Amino acid sequence: MYVRSNNPQISNPLAPPLITLLALVTLLLVSACAPSPTGQTLFLQTCSSCHATSGDTVIVGPSLADIATRADTVVASMDAREYILQSITDPSAYIMPGFKDLMPKSFDTYFGGQELQELVEYLLTLK
Ligand code: HEC
User: Fold this and answer.
1) Residue nearest to atom 37 of ligand 1 (CA)
2) Using one digit for the tens of pLDDT, what is the confidence trace for 55-113?
3) In 10 A of CB 114, how many CB atoms?
């Protein structure tokens, strides 16, 4: 005897495209909500070749182990956040004594605003 399937996925001809559509929408939502790379990840990718984050090690640039503390006092008119942001986006504005002006000048256009924000937040944790 022939039994008609009650499974809606089989009997409803619209079901497969609908499921594909739902899967696509889910995928889109998940990728839109995925967290952007953290400041630490960005730092490891773009800065750690020249900067250590512990001890006094000089790679090409100074160690940033205590940058959050030091950044408050380097330029009198700038607080730590301002100085760190300027160090990244306009590195020639202040050159650390004993170092050459070797930092790439392209970070202000290389990073988006959100990424710069996250980098600065990360550096502000290095006390
Ligand atoms: C090619 C090597 C190089 C790379 C890559 C580099 N830097 Fe630098 N950085 C330097 C040098 C050299 C100095 C010291 C000269 C100066 O003040 O610009 C410096 C200085 C700094 C300072 C100021 C340090 C202080 O103690 O006042 C900060 C903050 C800084 N860099 C952050 C970063 C961040 C964040 C990145 C990644 C987005 C980065 N740097 C990438 C070489 C580099």
Assistant:
1) 47
2) 999 999 999 999 999 999 999 999 999 999 999 999 999 999 999 999 999 999 999 99
3) 10
